[in-house]
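check this one:
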Amino acid sequence: MKIVGVIPARGNSERTKKKNTKIFCGRPLIAWTILSALKSKKLDRVIVSTDSSEIAKIARRYGAEVPFLRPPELATATIGIEPVMKHVYEWLKAKESYSADALALLFCTNPLRQSWHIDEAIKIMKKTGCDSVVAVNETPANHTPYWTLTQDKKGKVSLFGGIPLKKIINRRQDFPEKCYARNEIIYLLKPKNLYEKPSRLYGQKVELYVTNPIYEVDINTPEEWQLAEIRFKNLSKLKAP
């Protein structure tokens, strides 16, 4: 399989300005995703899709390919990720006659990702023949639908989905099934998924790649940035001799 790692990075970010180029634990944030992707034993290429010449320069310095600058219409705050992935796939096919068998979507917002996360997700796809692999971790009990509370316009509190509180499950062990949260480590997908209507990452057959929750992070706000740096430094200490 020819598998391309795709790192999307817009020049403007809404809540943390110039997030992708901001220094995170000694390097630009985007650098950590590039380095983990380049260390992967199963990715054939690592491509950054950006509209920013500054990001492109940094990406190339750390070893990623930036064969194009993303068109402005694909770099707005409202654009979904599917058109961006489709653009990468079609550009490579049209300009280089390179047809990827799978695309690994790697968001910069999780700098805790390890290269072996990428390789393990690829192993799952190769073994199962699935349309996509989504990295997740088990959801803490209080964040599952079984214990999530909602309040309607009249002030009435119930469980998620309008279930009366009197029907709450008292013990986590009695939940009918496990719940999982996406953790932005990797979305591995077959290109054909992008041509479904509506276009989507997942396809028909989805496999979950369950990871350790210590690697879960999604940086979008200054507060999340600070917490991610603390977690990153703690993980570095754990891996030290």
Observations:
- Strands lie at 3-9, 23-24, 27-28, 45-50, 102-105, 132-138, 149-151, 157-159, 180-189, 206-210.
- The chain has two domains: 3-137+179-239, 140-177.
- The longest strand covers residues 180-189.
